[in-house]
Amino acid sequence: MPSENTCFTPVLSRPGEGWQGRKGHVQDIAAQDHPDLSEYEVFACGSPAMTEQAKICLCNSISCRKTCFSPTHSRRPHHNSSV
């Protein structure tokens, strides 16, 4: 269900030829679109490198003082089993 508090912007860092949406890194696009995040909470999910860059870009650089959160990345052990 759409909400006035939710915005979805598809962004590709390596788009194909037919891509007509936004290009670049999602944290950079978010910073361009929302230069003042002081009244917002940021939740970043993705690879550890991406979430760290999002934290640096959005939470440290452009005034997101409330909350910056990314889930803990953990790997579960892979068990081989033969049936």
UniProtKB/TrEMBL annotation:
Q: Does the keyword Oxidoreductase apply?
A: yes
Q: Which residues form the Oxidoreductase FAD/NAD(P)-binding domain?
A: 6-54
One short Pfam family name for this protein? NAD_binding_1
- Give the stretches traversing the membrane: none
Per the UniProt record, which EC number(s) apply here? 1.16.1.3
Enzyme class per UniProt: oxidoreductase
Q: Which UniProt keywords apply?
A: Oxidoreductase
Q: Does the keyword Plastid apply?
A: no
How is this protein named in the record?
A: Iron/sulfur-binding oxidoreductase
Organism listed in the record: Neisseria gonorrhoeae
